[in-house]
Amino acid sequence: LLKSSTRMTDAHERSFIMVKPDGVQRGLVGEIIKRFEQRGFKLVAMKMVTPQRALLEQHYEEHKGKKFFDPLLSYIGSGPVVAMVWEGLNVVSVGRKMLGATDPAKSEPGTIRGDYAIVTGRNIAHGSDSDKSAKREIDLWFRADELANWTNFSSKRRRVSL
Ligand code: UDP
Fold first, then answer.
1. Is there a catalytic annotation at residue 63?
2. pTM exceeds 0.90 for this model
């Protein structure tokens, strides 16, 4: 019983994915969206925003006190980012694999960072690192009414007359 309910919720797992300012400036928004769409994930929310410092302090709270914290906040707060929520089976762990290692020098070619970045301080995109962080980050960045509830037309069982 537990197993089947776990499977049910897994298909609706969600991750917070953000194209950072360098990704936006380098014209990689479409490329990143394309990869998530083509992998089979479902886009449930997206917006372009220049995040306020208070939001970023919460988003990166686990790094407070580290030496890269202030530069990181200035960098992410410097320009618009594209914040998104993607949904699908294992989207958190698969999304992290698609992004590649935090340090692009260690990211495999074929990953987003492995294909487009060379330094940790400009690593193109963010992805939640656990289900718990995903929930926290989605709550932080999006209101409930900004999350779209939709079903692919072709997967609906209905009579069509076109
Ligand atoms: N970061 C940095 N210098 C570091 C470590 C991290 O600038 O030495 C930045 C980088 O943008 C990274 C973010 O801080 O993506 C968050 O770090 P984390 O270790 O959580 O990596 P992520 O989850 O983003 O892969």
1. no
2. yes
